[in-house]
Amino acid sequence: MKSAIDDAVARVLAHCQFIQGPEVHVLEAELAAFCGARHAIGCASGTDALLLVLMAWQIGPGDAVICPSFTYHATAEMVALLGATPIIADVLPDTFNLDPASCERAIATAKRLGLNPRAIIPVDLFGLPADHDAIAAIAAEHRLLVLDDAAQAFGASYRGRRLGTMATATATSFFPAKPLGCYGDGGAVFTDDDALAARVKSIRLHGEGVDRSEAARIGITGRLDTIQAAVLIEKLKIFPDEIEARNRVAARYSAALADIAIVPHIGNQSTSVWAQYTVRLKPGRRDRVAAALKTEGVPTAIYYSKPLHRQPAYRRFPIANGGVPVSDRLADEVLSLPMHAYLEPPVQDRIIDAVRRNLDGSSH
Ligand SMILES: Cc1ncc(COP(=O)(O)O)c(C=O)c1O
User: Fold this and answer.
1) Residue (of 74, 81, 123, 115) closest to 320 by Cα position
2) Which end of the chain is more exposed for a tag (fewer CB within 10 A), N or C?
């Protein structure tokens, strides 16, 4: 993509509208069309996308927001930053996504603590959509807002629709390593709610009111750089092909490893964009296999060795009644293998061969 991206960046350098330039508006329209949301609002990072929505909802002290434990800790970070209380819930062992039953218990836990449950943040972990129907039903019953943390999953679909419209608001990240990555930090908020979109846009621009001279509310510098938008416009063109390629890589891994490891479960209501391809191995075995693969030049990663409730910064927050045993178990068992759209079969075969040899003789 070098020449297309070089040209796109050069166009920005020529027009010099580095902030809120035309590419930002073009990208926002294309992102909205891509996922079917009424509004796509570019912003500075996935973290800012979460923050903008939580600020627009005026989440603050005394409020509780349900977050899964098995996630990247940024999911709960802005909740805590705003003085609200993340209530940590467990995930399901097959999808690694928020367990609706634990989510219910977390709401009860929040009430027992005298907090006001306001929102749920399901995470579409590793690119796979959470159980959005079940979460929407719980949210409706308890009158809660849902902020979908799709930082890892933009482009994935749930019951035939792309993420972006499953929740009241959706946040995504364009961090370079994400399935749709830019050349620095970037993110976006998606919503069908016009009033929410207007507030998010204002907060993104220092709380801009009728014009730039008016501060209607407290905001932040939360904009997406025009250069990043220019890069993303080009990368979005090939994104559907890249998603297909990632799915081919994942299918090959699963076919080759299903007899020796627990391979990802997708189910028939979702598609994944495979931000990670993560297998489960027997506890104790995982670290030895990862070390052996490293010596063979096969990089792996452990997402997440420390779930939220074990992070020093988050240990003080309440855990849903019933605990988070699945998150604890996954932390000891998960191993993510190399995954990207350009992983050629011979290279992948080398990885598969190395994993199989190092797991030989063990059942999972
Ligand atoms: C689940 C999750 N939420 C939020 C974020 C934050 O995104 P960013 O790094 O763009 O701020 C990330 C990625 O880093 C993430 O993986």
Assistant:
1) 115
2) N
**Cα 158 to ligand 1 centre (Å):** 20
Verify whether ligand 1 is closer than 6 Å to residue 68 (CB atom): no
Contact 273, 155 (CB under 8 A): yes
At residue 27 the predicted structure's pLDDT band, cuts being 50, 70 and 90, is very high
Q: What is the pLDDT of residue 17?
A: 98
The span from the CA of 183 to the CA of 224, in Å, is 12
Indicate if the pLDDT at residue 360 is higher than 90. Answer: no
| Ligand 1 centroid distance, CA of 48 (Å) | 9
Give me the mean pLDDT over the 60-68 stretch: 98
**135 is written with which tokens?**
């979460």
Model confidence at 148: pLDDT above 70: yes
336 lines ligand 1 (CB under 6 A): no
- How do residues 224-243 score in pLDDT, each as one tens digit? 999 999 999 999 999 999 99
| CA distances from residue 223 to 19, 193, 200, 306 in whole angstroms, order as listed | 8, 20, 11, 31
Closest residue to atom 12 of ligand 1, CA basis = 151
Rounded Cα–Cα distance for residues 94 and 46 (Å): 25
3-state secondary structure of 63: strand
User: Separation of 152 CA from ligand 1 center, angstroms?
Assistant: 7
pLDDT at position 364 over 80: no
Q: Phi and psi for 198 in degrees, rounded to 5?
A: -65, -40
The mean pLDDT of the chain is: 97
Chain segment 338-347, per-residue pLDDT in tens: 999 999 999 9
- With a 6 Å cutoff on the Cβ, whether 276 touches ligand 1 is no
Question: 339 in helix, strand or coil?
Answer: coil
Please, which residues bridge with residue 43 across strands? 187
188 CB neighbour count, 10 Å cutoff: 31
Q: Are 204 and 39 in contact (CB under 8 A)?
A: no
Q: For ligand 1, say whether the CB of 151 is within 6 Å of any of its atoms.
A: yes
CA torsion through residues 138, 140, 145, 147, sign:
positive
- Residue 239 beta carbon below 6 angstroms from any ligand 1 atom: no
Q: How far is the CA of 72 from the centre of ligand 1 (A)?
A: 7
| pTM for this model (two decimals) | 0.98
Residue type, 68: P
